[in-house]
Amino acid sequence: MVLQKGITYMHEHTTIDLSRLKNIDDTNLNCFDETVAEYKKLYSKGVRNIVDVTNMDMRRNPMYVKRVSDETNMNIIQATGFYQDKFLPEFVTNHTVKQLTDFMIKEINEGIANTDIKAQIIGEIGTSKDMMTPREKKVFEASVIAQKETGIPITTHTTLGTYGHEQIDFFKEHGANLCKIVIGHVDLTGDIDYILHMLDQGVYVEFDTVGKENYQPDLLRVNMLKEIEKRGYTDRVFLSMDITRKSNLEYMGGIGYSYLLDKFVPLALENGVSSKFITKMLEENPAEFMNRGLKK
Ligand SMILES: [Zn+2]
User: Fold this and answer.
1) How far is the CA of 296 from the centre of ligand 1 (A)?
2) Cβ atoms of residues 21 and 235 within 8 Å
3) pLDDT value, residue 23
4) pLDDT per residue over 129-155, tens digit each?
5) d(Cα 195, Cα 192) in Å, to the nearest integer?
6) Percent of the chain with pLDDT over 70
7) Range of the domain at 233
8) In a domain, 110, yes or no
9) 192-208 residue pLDDT tens
């Protein structure tokens, strides 16, 4: 089994450094002790798995993540793949689709970046705002082939929720297994019809920016979840927070990882989302998604 029984945050970054483009130290999430403290707190609340979608070139650090896992007992799933265009390494420009595929398959079968830590998810592979650049297309093509060969799931990044429908069209055209794909950041669309159309196609979706109220109020997230529940799509939604900044953590006065369980879940329950649906999003759906089709 990939996941342990318990709650799973499906889209996080234990350590990530986007500071070279964003030009602020805050976007270098490298506060080891504070992350350990928060993961321990999550563990005490029943969280057992974190799916860490950090990849090249978000300055991933698989050994750092492993040390956090060792210190907290948290099962942290690590990823292979490449992000959206402006963060892509030259590596992607210079390599063919076949070379990118081989790179990912090696990280899945042997280990990430010369460690023996095997990638268990491909992602977060991204598209830019309202478009897929030629380099992103290469990454998507390689990811579909790597998925077909290894059977592991794909998780995507949409920029502010845009281009999600086109990502799905791409996966369909390339014969990818839609029930092994989750489209990320869909809550940022704020558009329930847009999300329902995705669910109609057979993919999973993530409300993975919970607590980022500067983008979207949580009450809107809750209202969209209510509608999804009404339409009967409760089996294919995950929740997460996508914490990427030091200032998101409690020691800096941020909301911290526990916000999802301590604040968002009560808000959802108060406003009519069922506790059954909450349990599905936090526990059952991630397990179904990550463990599906694996040899026991
Ligand atoms: Zn993302």
Assistant:
1) 31
2) no
3) 80
4) 999 999 999 999 999 999 999 999 999
5) 5
6) 99
7) 7-291
8) yes
9) 999 999 999 999 999 99
Round to whole Å and give the CA distance between 57 and 43: 29
Number of domains in the chain: 1
Determine contact, residues 184/124, Cβ cutoff 8 Å: yes
Under 8 Å between Cβ of 95 and 120: no
Known binding residue 185? Answer is yes
CATH number at residue 121: 3.20.20.140
Tell me: is residue 165 an annotated ligand-binding position.
no
Is 213 within a domain? yes
Cα–Cα nearest to 65, from 55, 10, 126:
55
Within a domain: 137: yes
Question: Residue range 218-224: average pLDDT?
Answer: 98
Q: Tokens 């805050």 correspond to what residue?
A: 26
Tell me if 1 is assigned to some domain: no
242 is in an annotated binding site: yes
Residue 127 C-alpha to ligand 1 middle, in angstroms? 9
Q: Is 197 annotated as a binding residue?
A: no
